[in-house]
Write the structure tokens for this entry.
Amino acid sequence: MSLTRRRVTSAALAAVPLAGRSPRGHRTLHLAGDSTAARKYADEAPETGWGTALPFFLREQVTVANHAVNGRSSKSFVDGGRLDALLVGIRPGDLLLVQFAHNDEKDTDPTRHTEPWTTYQDCLRLYLKGARAHGARPVLATPVERRRFDADGNAVPTHGDYPAAMRALARQEGVALLGIEALSLALWQRLGAEATKTYFNRTATEQDNTHFNPPGAIAVARLVARELLRTRVLARPDVVRLHEDIPASWITWPPAPES
């Protein structure tokens, strides 16, 4: 999950906070996360963040504001001012969905690394506190799993204690938790080592087992939508197309903004 200046700039422009109050009956789901969820641009295709596909599963009255940024951890998202920028645009009744861990795990990078049971939880509390201070509802999502299989063909978890630490924090804070880590691991197991290749950003020049292509982003977004419904974060009328095929052609990559 390397971070470049232009990618940071592009993601920041894509996540400019919304101004003014939402129209009656509308609310915004703000997404804070890393490159697995972030919006991608034309020079990154076919890489696709699941946050791009999430609106396909939500009714029009629920708007997704994707603030996820490539390469960010729960710590560096805050330190870089992205949480503050997000909170400027959040309104009472909105949702703040938070998914981090991939970059928190990088213990050789002190600008991003957090420890699961201490600094990771401390950073996540900042998102919860910020959302609540603005009358919004915070929601935690355990990190989507990478594609990794052992010699026996079993899908292998890669996030260590981070999902457990997030689950514990959700219980302590009374926050809804979306179990995306376990659900995505089960999905990769069901599909198998070969079939999962068609869900990740694997091309002739890229053998990526972390980031998704359009089918993978759609599959993960479907898991997120189901969890939003299961946890009653959203009501049944808010969630659509759960049992429909979503064409990969619905995914588009806009030109990257000028750096």
